[in-house]
Amino acid sequence: IWARSQYPLADSIYRHGLIVKLDSDSTSYVQNEGIRRWSFNNTLSLVKQLSAWVDNQTVVVHLVGWQGSGHDTLYPSLDKINPNVGSSSDLYWLADASSQYNTIISYHINTDEACESQSARSPAARTCL
Fold this sequence. Notes:
With 129 residues, the chain is α/β, with parallel strands linked by helices. The protein has helices spanning 2-6, 12-15, 40-53, 88-98; strands at 18-23, 59-64, 103-107.
């Protein structure tokens, strides 16, 4: 309740739709090496399924592991697509094709955390803990 009173209400998309976090690539963790990757091209089949399940209500799919070499790599870089899940063209295609299913493709990024070794880290950003 305290958190809700401190911040304005989120956009209605996030209050009236289904929000899903999809681990496109979590294989950057050693213990996750056997986990399947979801390519951008294969993700559209999931988008179609989710849209049918919620009777075409708004769906927001947060892609995790879309950058660098999987989840928690190269953040907060916004321009390094993970080649294990597709190309920038594949990602643009997914975002465009998903709109016909009332689905928004969103991106899991950590803009408030950064490591000194990452390309998008500004000098003012804090170091990794």
